[in-house]
Specification:
This protein starts with 5 loop residues before the first helix and ends in a 7-residue tail after the last helix. Helix 2 packs across helix 3. The protein is built from ten helices and eleven strands. The protein is globular. It folds into two domains: about 220 residues, Alpha/beta knot, CATH 3.40.1280.10; about 60 residues, OB fold (Dihydrolipoamide Acetyltransferase, E2P), CATH 2.40.50.140. By secondary structure, it is of the alpha/beta class.
Amino acid sequence: MAPPNEHTAKRRRLDNDDEAEKPQMDTTSFKPSARFKPSEPREWTVSVAVPTSVITDCATREQRTTYAGRIARALAVFSIDEIVIFDDSPLDSRPPDVDVDAFTGDVDPAHFLTHLLSYLEAPPFMRKSLFPLHPNLRSQGLLPSLDMPHHPHKDEWLPYREGMTVSGKTKGGKGTLVDIGMRDPVAITESIPPKTRLTLKLPELGAAGEPEPVHPTAPRTEAGYFWGYGVRKAGSLSQVFTESGFEDGYDMSIGTSERGLALGKVFPDSESTADFKHLLVVFGGPRGLEYAAMNDPELADSLGAGRIRDLFDHWVNVLPNQGSRTIRTDEAMLIALTGLRKLWDLS
């Protein structure tokens, strides 16, 4: 065999030297990010309100489904505690009777959105039991994974778990079996009908004891976990406020509009977290919050479209000098929550 060409041999040596000098890549950096780490127990909440008109421009079932999925992703990523879907359509355009067992994306978008958002919030292992086959869910394969803390992996231990009661007898013959997404169900002493969703507090690892049913907000108020979002439907913009599930309502409200003040002027960077107990951020649809006020009998006479800003504590423009003529509501949510997160981010 002929001796290797000197140039080829030199190139091989250089290539080997280069490989030797290259730093070894830490492949662990490509692993999925760490799980949610709670900061401290919290009583405060952040709510977001979105109008039904956000899906009126969607022409197909698939487009409406993916839009709902984008809203849910924004809620999950920013740890939003409540989503309110309010109807901003004219009263005379709403059908008097709606068959909720049929597809509602084109006749009752409030029902459609709350249906899909509730479906996505539920832990995947219990969706089949809690949400029977329905035309609204026919394109569920297009929906994203939210991977929230209460959607745990089977090898992950958390002090709390979402569970669903199932039929069957416990070892002692009393109490109820609860499926918590693990290989075997757990037993609780309470007697609860099957297919009931509940929140459980688990005993410490290695400690004796039984899971204990707790209030659904306990993971947040006791340990600081983001534990999914609640879903509420409102018949109008004013009902977002008047039908609040919180005892004293929302003590801080923010309305978004291209006619508002720049976010940086309303909340300067020099300011840190805001003082609130229940914050509400309201987004408009393709025609803005003015359209919602115009179609709300409670607001049309008292405020009028031009004074809608008086309904809120703050009236902000989340992206002044936008490059596109329009910003979709799902895009505005991501932009606004990115800027507003400093009001509650404790890290």
